[in-house]
């Protein structure tokens, strides 16, 4: 989707996203407009904080989010980023309705559309097209997480950074070194060295 669509009604953008997989009929579109709610966040605002139950799945209309865990030394570890037209939630907390071990924070002023667990289950039961749509969304997330785990096991820091640069060119432009380094599992100082080595090889 063209990012110029940000100027349109956010619900139109969401419906267009669904239509890319399984086009919605008029009644299904009505349900989207009824059940999804808009939320505006300032930079450093939270969609979810550790210890809370994840009550919503969020579709990003504008802005950028990070989902992260904090270890016993109070160090943040980024697990996922989400920008325009991507979904973000702690899926385990959302479906199990248990306190989350993760936080989701806005890195930029942001706008999302959200649906509750109860309303999403209603869509699954009454309109099976949404079940198929969200199955694809969740499968893609699983594939991305699996690929990331494999990279952390067998790839060097430089290889992981080059893959991040290839797969997320928009994030490279929008995120500070500290956030990218946290995602890659290295320090920002080491990331700077990696970047310098890449430049030398060119």
Describe this structure as you would to a colleague.
This protein is an alpha+beta fold and 202 residues long. The protein has nine helices and eight strands. It has helices at 10-19, 26-35, 91-96, 117-126, 128-154, 157-167, 169-174, 177-184, 188-201; strands spanning 37-41, 46-48, 56-62, 65-70, 76-82, 87-88, 103-106, 110-116. The strands form two sheets. A four-stranded antiparallel β-sheet has the order 1-8-3-6. The protein has a four-stranded antiparallel β-sheet with strand order 2-7-4-5. A hairpin with a 5-residue loop joins strand 4 (65-70) and strand 5 (76-82). Helix 4 (117-126) crosses helix 5 (128-154) and helix 8 crosses helix 9. The longest helix has 27 residues, at 128-154. The chain starts with 9 loop residues before the first helix and ends with a helix. Mean pLDDT is 92; it is low at 1-7. It holds the Pfam family cNMP_binding. It comes from Chryseobacterium luquanense. Residues 40-124 form the Cyclic nucleotide-binding domain. This is Crp/Fnr family transcriptional regulator.
Quick overview of this protein structure:
The chain is α+β, with helices and mostly antiparallel strands and 202 residues long. It has 9 helices and 8 strands. The relative contact order is 0.14.
Number of extended strands: 8
* H-E order: HHEEEEEEHEEHHHHHH
Relative strand content: 15-25%
Q: What's the overall geometry?
A: globular
Measured as a percent range, the helix fraction is: 40-55%
- Termini Cα gap: 33 Å
Main sheet: strand order: 1-8-3-6
Question: Helix/strand-derived class?
Answer: alpha+beta
Q: Helix count? A: 9
Question: What is the arithmetic mean of pLDDT?
Answer: 92
What's the gyration radius in Å? 18 Å
Uncertain segments: 1-7
Largest sheet data: 4 strands, antiparallel
């Amino acid at each position: 989707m063209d990012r110029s669509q940000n100027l349109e009604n956010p619900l139109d953008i969401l419906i267009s996203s669904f239509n890319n997989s399984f086009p919605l009929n008029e009644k299904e579109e009505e349900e989207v407009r009824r059940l999804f709610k808009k939320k505006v966040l300032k930079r450093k605002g939270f969609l979810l904080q550790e210890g809370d139950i994840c009550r919503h799945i969020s579709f990003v209309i504008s802005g950028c989010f990070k989902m992260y865990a904090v270890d016993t030394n109070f160090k943040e570890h980024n697990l996922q980023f989400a920008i325009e037209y991507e979904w973000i939630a702690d899926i385990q907390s959302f479906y199990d309705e248990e306190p989350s071990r993760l936080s989701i924070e806005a890195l930029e002023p942001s706008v999302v559309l959200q649906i509750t667990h109860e309303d999403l289950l209603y869509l699954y039961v009454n309109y099976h097209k949404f079940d198929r749509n969200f199955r694809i969304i969740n499968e893609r997330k699983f594939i991305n997480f699996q690929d990331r785990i494999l990279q952390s096991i067998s790839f060097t820091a430089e290889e992981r950074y080059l893959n991040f640069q290839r797969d997320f060119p928009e994030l490279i432009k929008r995120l500070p070194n500290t956030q990218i380094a946290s995602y890659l599992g290295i320090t920002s100082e080491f990331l700077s060295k990696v970047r310098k080595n890449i430049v030398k090889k060119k």
